[in-house]
Amino acid sequence: MIAYEELLAPVAGQVPDVLSLLGDHASLARRPAFRIEPADATTMPAYRRLRREVFVREQGLFNGTDRDERDDDPRTVVLVARSAEGAVLGGVRLGPATDGPDIGWWQGGRLAVGRAARGTSGVGPALVRAACAHAENAGVLRFEATVQRRNEPLFAHLGWHRVREVRTAGVPHALMRWPVNRVQDLVQATKTALGPLLTAGLPGDLGGAGFVGDDGAPVPGSDLVAACDAIVPSMVERDPDWAGWCSVLVNVNDLAAMGAEPVGLLDAIGARNSSHATRVLTGMRRAAQAYGGIPLLGGHTQLDVPAALSVTALGRTSRPIPGGGGRPGHKVRLTADLGGRWRPNYPGRQWDSTSHRRTPELRAMLGSAALAQPAAAKDVSMAGIAGTLGMLAEASGCAAVLDVADIPRPAAANVGDWLTCFPGFAMLTADEPGTAPPPAGPATSAECGRLVPGSGIRLRWPDGELTDAVTATVTGLGNA
Question: The domain containing residue 351 runs over which residues?
Fold first, then answer.
């Protein structure tokens, strides 16, 4: 995902920067400098006058005015291009395509550029690029625009895809879609290397037959389940107490997805000094106590080394739940704790729903999968909700469709962040349609998708449109 500031920095600079952004190498002498910024009370009237000049007087698309209900929606964003002297050269608007809660589906439109700034100035392309960056930073996963036929080549050159022909104001247009690859990029960064790496380096079935690529591994000849997770070293370095808490959290979630009751933890800690190691251990002990007094059985500690932390958890169950037990036709359910907030220093990436919970609440959530005994279950990991569903579907030998509007989500999280963050406690399950979920403490549970033949993950929107979130398998480990 391109950061808005990263894209706008060259646009806000002098002409050579703008030309570099747009790939135009013509003479610099006739290129005016301009910047792109959100419209304010000063520039909004100028943008609306420009729109009226273009769409009413020049093109005759509208009679009298081109204003519509989107202009009155407080969620609508307008970006304008201003010259070095402050004049509005062009503008574009964008915002949610549906009424009600913002579900991450936005539309762009009313792209207008003044006569003097058209052609070789680069204002139009820069406004389009800025709109795409703004939408992605707002967590949008579907961004579209209806484009006049004569402008379709420009949008295609900028990376947009044609969806189909539509009519706007009685004139043929093309519905164009900007490819938002946020989920796919996360999957590739966190999980895609696993299959080639692990299947080439280790013999046998990873996790055992029926549990390949699962959250935990049943120990042969026993009712034990073992799980192991490592915490990102940079997080251990800068936030050791929280890293210790999370090392317990992710492991007990792994056991919960298998339907196992936690019975003990082992840790391996690397730290620059004893004070740093103490802070990691303090976080671990707090979490172990909060989850009902899970014993810390021992482990290994090394000082005067770079920060590192991994924890192994042991649990018990006579009926481990596989991550790959789903089948086409099974309904997908998300059970998630929507309470809490973004963890300080991790906005949009880590949702802290656990550190404020009481032990009975935490235990009720952990035990929900064991009570339900679904056909398949996986706790949501660093691949996010969509990527983790991709792993469940892959292990089950199928694909999945996720209904965006039905996904339980905190009000403080936009759709893009919520589908790609680590959400504290969130469990994905697959089972026969209509299966009633057991109580899960403070967590919210809802059916929000379905397993289907094929591979990958598609998002289904309220208008029935499907867009790709993950185009193929996630890990390459294959069917469990």
Answer: 181-202+322-480
